[in-house]
């Protein structure tokens, strides 16, 4: 009887230990792989635009013209890019001198520019940018080159298509094409922005 009792006690102790051990579930630290998403903000872009160029100097007085330009550029990232622009008037009836339509065939307005473009995203759709570079402008029978600068705003309808407006100072100096004259030329530009 004593042996049976001892055997029962030993069996009950072993059962208790087994049940206690059965409640313990071994756990391991969960390892979750989080993919690193790399956002590519670099892009080539094209800007067909309409420009209203105007200026004045002591020789020719005030002049203005309707200019068609095209720009091609590359954004290295969302903060810096490069841009090249070129354009000109298509005909003399797009030009006015001292408020009168220009009728001679030797009067034209053209511009070519290379800009460094610092920029800053204001929101998901809007981006402000500056332009600073070097270029050549031609008005009447003369042309000259120098520092050019400006600023503008982009609005993107989608990832690839948007519109923009900007202002550029194309020339500002006391001498133009070798002649001593206080001359300046400005341009207000508006157009489409196409990225790829």
Description:
The protein is mainly beta. It has a single domain, classed as Porin (Beta Barrel). Helices cover 11% and strands 62% of the residues. The chain contains one helix and ten strands. Strands 1-2-3-6-7-8-9-10 form an eight-stranded antiparallel barrel. β8 and β9 form a beta hairpin. The longest helix is centred in the N-terminal third of the chain and has 21 residues. The protein is elongated and about 85 Å long. It starts with a helix and ends with a strand. The mean pLDDT is 81.
Layout of secondary structure:
Layout: H1 2-22, E1 43-57, E2 61-75, E3 80-88, E4 95-97, E5 100-101, E6 108-121, E7 126-140, E8 142-156, E9 161-176, E10 179-195
Antiparallel strand pairs: 1-2, 1-10, 2-3, 2-4, 3-6, 4-5, 6-7, 7-8, 8-9, 9-10
Q: What is the CATH architecture assignment?
A: Beta Barrel
Shape label: elongated
Low-confidence stretches: none
Largest pleated sheet: 8 strands, antiparallel, barrel
Strand order of the largest sheet: 1-2-3-6-7-8-9-10
**Count of DSSP strands:** 10
Strand content: over 45%
N- and C-termini, Cα separation: 93 Å
**Rounded average pLDDT:** 81
Remind me, CATH topology?
Porin
Q: Total helix count? A: 1
**Structural class by helix and strand composition:** mainly beta
Number of domains: 1
Helix-strand pattern: HEEEEEEEEEE
- Briefly, what CATH class? Mainly Beta
Approximately how much helix is present in the residues?
10-25%
Roughly how many Å is the radius of gyration? 36 Å
């Amino acid at each position: 009887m004593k042996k049976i009792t001892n055997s029962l006690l030993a069996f009950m102790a072993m059962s208790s230990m087994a049940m206690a051990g059965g409640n313990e579930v071994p756990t391991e630290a969960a390892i979750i792989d989080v993919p690193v998403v790399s956002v590519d903000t670099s892009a080539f872009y094209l800007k067909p635009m309409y420009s209203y160029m105007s200026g004045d100097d002591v020789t020719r007085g005030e002049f203005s013209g309707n200019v068609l330009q095209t720009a091609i550029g590359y954004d290295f990232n969302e903060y810096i890019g490069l841009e090249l622009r070129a354009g000109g008037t298509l005909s003399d009836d797009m030009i006015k001198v001292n408020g009168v339509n220009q009728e001679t065939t030797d009067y034209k307005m053209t511009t070519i520019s290379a800009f460094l473009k610092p920029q800053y995203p204001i929101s998901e759709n809007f981006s402000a940018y500056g332009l600073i570079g070097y270029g050549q402008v031609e008005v009447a029978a003369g042309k000259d080159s120098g520092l050019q600068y400006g600023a503008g705003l982009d609005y993107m309808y989608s990832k690839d298509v948007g519109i923009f407006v900007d202002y550029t100072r194309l020339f500002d100096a006391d001498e133009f094409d070798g002649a001593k004259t206080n001359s300046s030329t400005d341009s207000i530009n508006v157009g489409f922005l196409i990225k790829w």
